[in-house]
Amino acid sequence: MTINERIKQVRKTFKLSQAEFARAVFISNGYIAEMETGNRKVNDRIIHLVALTFGISEQWLKTGKGDMRYKTPDEKLRRMINLFNELPPKFQDYVVAQIEALLAATRNGNP
Predict the structure, then answer these.
(1) By residue range, what is the domain housing residue 101?
(2) In contact, 36 and 21? CB cutoff 8 Å
(3) CATH no. for residue 55?
(4) What number of helices (H) and strands (E) belong to the chain?
(5) CA count, 13 A, side-chain hemisphere, 1
């Protein structure tokens, strides 16, 4: 399996369309389509973005060796980042304000 095929496998594992996957890693739909067909090279930036966004092993993406997904407690954080990135900026600001308020309440002894 090529690196291009592994990128496609990641997308399919998360049941995302090419457009959804492209948005999640901040590249164009056309770029994803060309990568998946092997008409574009997968560069280190794309590898890093896919790994970070979806909790995928960079080694697996590059070589196919090892497990595809990391088994870490950071999966919730990666999922939150992915969801956050899909929000329009005004809603991102709202989410940040809510987290800050929750932290302030927690620090003041309110559960």
Answers:
(1) 75-107
(2) no
(3) 1.10.260.40
(4) 7, 0
(5) 16
